[in-house]
Amino acid sequence: MRDKLERRSFLLLLVLVSIAFGFILEPFFGAIFWACAVTVIFAPMQGWVLTKIGDRPNTAAGLTLLTCMAIVVIPVIFLSTAFVKEGIQFYQRVEAGEIDPRQILQQLRDAFPWFDRVLVELGVDTSNLRERISTSLVSATQFLAKETLSIGQNTFSFLISLALMMYLTFFLLRDGSKLIKLIVRALPLGDDREEALFKKFAEVTRATVKGNLVVAIVQGALGGFIFWILDIPGPLLWGVVMAFLSLIPAVGAAIIWFPVCLYLFATGDWVSGTVLLVYGAVVIGLADNVLRPILVGRDTKLPDYIVLFSTIGGITIFGINGFVIGPLVAALFMATWQIFMKDFNGEL
């Protein structure tokens, strides 16, 4: 009887201490999560370096980390700096009245008068629609610019998080395999099941991060390039925004380039509008339709609709980290149920 009481008391203490430790780490969730993601992505390279230099884990982890910084971190810092600079300039133009969302909306309504008739037929009250949309556009534009300004002002916090992430990544690269074995020994789920779940975690994280980032970079670069060619203000700013939005499957970058296309038509620039429409639908859209299923859906073994809903849901709950966490949770959900059906229901 006493042994049972002691065992239950210890398990309660274990749960409480684990929850408390989780609360302590909560402010560093982003840094820890991305350290794990980077480790999973660069773990094959860490293994390759070890085979070349021998049993020198510290050196191998250091070389892998330097490669990661050269490929990912340094370019992101340079791009973020340019993005913040252009975002601040855009905000200043909005504040100075050089860019007026209300005027843009009026030009769109003048060019497409049938739009109001369609809204009336659908039962939408258009009496104060212009004011509401104009206010929303101004708010959205200023929010985007102010957030960009905020990013610039919070550079120190970003650098601290980045340093913590890279610091943790080094130790995860060096000791990752030992930590996984320790966790497998500690968890009471069955070693085979735990190894299967860890394998699924690695597969989904690697595929989602690499796949979504490749798609985002390609679509953002293509969008920024055509904006620059067509002399649309803020090509770098909108290219980065399109890259972020392209994390949402199916619609993504079209949220930016399609309204700009309509504006070009509304202002009578039919050549630029047609070029942007064709380029956006064919080139930018093709990058999403071709690359995403190959890089994300196929490797994660998730249906496209699961990838779509889990990505949007993840971003809604977890912010930018959600584009990985969402599909990861969905994949672990499906893997867990597959293990359940196999081990408890006898299904293959």
Protein described:
- With 348 residues, the chain is mainly alpha-helical.
- The protein has 13 helices and no strands.
- α2 crosses α3 (57-96), α3 packs across α6 and α4 (101-111) packs across α10 (254-266).
- The radius of gyration is 25 Å and the shape is elongated.
- The two termini are 41 Å apart.
- The mean pLDDT is 75.
Topology:
Blueprint: H1 2-25, H2 29-53, H3 57-96, H4 101-111, H5 114-121, H6 129-153, H7 155-186, H8 191-229, H9 235-245, H10 254-266, H11 270-300, H12 304-318, H13 322-343
Short description:
By secondary structure, the chain is mainly α. The protein contains 13 helices and no strands. Helix 2 packs across helix 3, helix 3 packs across helix 6 and helix 4 packs across helix 6.
Distance between the termini: 41 Å
What is the typical, i.e. mean, pLDDT? 75
Largest sheet: none
Which bin fits the share of residues in helices?
A: over 70%
The helix/strand series, from N terminus to C terminus, equals HHHHHHHHHHHHH
Radius of gyration, whole Å: 25 Å
As a percent range, the share of strand residues is: under 5%
The shape is elongated
Number of strands: 0
SS class: mainly alpha
Given as residue ranges, the uncertain stretches (5+ residues, pLDDT < 50) are: none
